[in-house]
User: What shape does this take?
Amino acid sequence: MVVQLQVLSVNSGEMAPSLLLSTESQRFLIDVGDGTQRMCMEHHVRLAKLRHVFLTQLRAHTLGGLPGMVLTVSDTGKDALRVFGPRGTQRFLTATRHFLVRPDFELEGVDLKATRADAPAPTPCYSDDEVLVYAVVTGRTKAGVKRKLHESSASPPNSSCGSSSSSAGEEEEDATRETPPPTADCVSYVIETQPQRGKFLVERAVALGVPKGRLFGQLHQGKSVTLPDGRVVHSADCVSPTLPATGCAVVACPSLEYVDALVRDTSGGFRRYQSNPAEHEVVAGNSDGDSDSAGPDVQLSAVFHLADPDVLRHPKYVAWVQRFGAGVEHVLLSHDGCPRKTVYRASATLQAQLQSVFPRAFPPADRELQDAEVPFSRRVSMLFAPDRPVVVGESLLKFAIAPAARRGFDAGACWKRLDVDEAHTLTAAIRARLEQRDAVDTSSAATTPTPTLAVNGRITFLGTGCAIPSKYRNVTGMYLEIEHEQPRAGGGDAVALPAAVSPDWSGFMLDCGEGSYGQLHRYAGGDTRRVRELVGKLKCIWISHNHADHHLGAVRVLSLRACEAEPVLLIGPTSVAHWLDEYSAVDPTVAGKYRFVDNYCFDELDERFQDAAAEAKAARAWLRDALGVTAFECVPVTHAFRSYALVATFGDALKVAFSGDCRPSERFADRARGAFLMVHEATFEDALAHEAASKKHCTTTEAVDVGRRAGAAHLVLTHFSQRYPKAPVMAAGGGDVLTAVDLLSLRFDELHQPQLVDVCAELMALGDDDDDSNATTATAVPPPVADSS
Assistant: This one.
């Protein structure tokens, strides 16, 4: 029997911790944060045997990747998935019905509750012939928190901090509101191996005169047998002793508020794995415990800690952890010393290469230079393990629980630090060629002047793929940084936009697929202050339609906004509002952080527009004050139910258009006429025009044609099928049309990049020994056949 626990990710900022439990017959995920699916695909983590998921909390960082994982698993022919988690797990899964429609797939939620103190013995929440999984539920008992509501003329209509549905009148009545304590249980898990029957000793059985055949089997099963001569042979006579159970614990203690409840352990969930319970009771501040001193019933091999540094240093937590004994390995998954290496190695390598050639168009990829050069080489001293250093976890680190002969760590799959110097060396010839070409262009009269814009800003592509992520492309998302100062007509000093906005810039997201927050983290170079700025200055998220790859990342982004910040204006289809409202009831870190307005409120031809005129007027006024938007129109397009494109004008004349997912649209081309920037989906190559039509997407040529009919000054193509994991197939004569790459980041006055497409294609063709067509088939969760996002 082989049982192992593998770290998929640690708390690196880009991703949250996630683990994979593997047995010979099953796979189990413990937490499924944003980006888990993409990480598994790139690194060939096999999930064909995935049947069960265990959640430690109902928070965006622990479950943000689960709906996408469910969609992919269901598309591979699997028929069921069971999800264990705190109270509210089934409610969360029910909320996904607004976009996750799989009638033949059974998605079951199991709400785990704390075991009563007088229960005779802990009962596993899951068991099979190989392992048992015990859940230890820890509640947080804390009074409601008074929140000061943010009131500002720039707040979205009817905004509030405590609830996503309260009215403006209610806000004016109370400057503070007592919010009830949410369901904030967290769950730790203990994985026990089943006791293993000893080895059947054939030679001894033969020596005792036992004939080969069914009697061998009966003896190995623990039964006694009677031989033809009347002698009785017992199982113990020819079977080695049973191997005792061992185990591994995943301890979830997300903050200091959980420490007391965890160490008190009223359910007794951890006591059978610890020694000296009486001493433990004294440490925990409870003197009513049993005074007997005893060793653990089952000896744990390792404890994985989902706890921040403050918890790890807390005296009560330290004393409680010491009760597991000196022989236990400890692994830290949320420690400050965890590696910051991105889990998306192929994309990071390409990013480093592109950044060396286009330093103004791509963020640097050198944040992991702070990590140790050799993987699995860092251990730290912790108070709860004074005798030996503690392991700092990192992605793909394995710990073998059974068999005993293989017990221990395996870091063979962990990767080295990204070699930025190698990336620069690899692109030296390309840089030299471009520098020579630039010198020729500079000396000629063909040099393109830098445009003077009424409003400047920057667009960053957080994801350029469709349906599910691939090695090089995350799913759809863009972040616009809109500057607030603009030059006067005819030159002169800059004038500020209304005082309701901050004096520099504001953020605007166009679609927000899973993993968007991790991409923001990479765009910021891992600078946490910069990431907080990007999230904090976000004013509006616009969602084109209800497909999961266009909005699942929103809950993670919203959860990380400060409660005192003004709510984000979220514009999208009604079904997304239903999803977010129901999800907010489970995860209080999202509640009150958005204000929803439906896309149809910005379509004057919609029959419902007149009924929503007042709401639309208030939203337009807020968009004008917060982002400098002077015109905002949602254009219905042909794709999924209630899909929209967007045409927004900033300042007097800077028009930006985004197609969402669609077939070529004459109305969109007309409304986007004269656009400074158009971003258009181009899912398929021209040879697949029939498939594009059947799935209601565009080919590259169709997208280019829409841009030309609109007379767009700059056209960028995105949302490529994952069958093009590197460069999309373009027809000849594309001109200076850009094909977006993840983390491409351009200022509006630098959108003219005639060399970018060719260089991207050249770099993507270099040195990728791990062929992408094999990357997805090597995983047990291959991509769905349909590019139906």
Q: What stands out?
A: DSSP finds 25 helices and 35 strands in the chain. The chain has a mean pLDDT of 85. The first strand starts at residue 3 and ends at 9. The chain has three domains: 3-141+182-194+243-275+297-337+372-408, 202-237, 457-485+503-767.
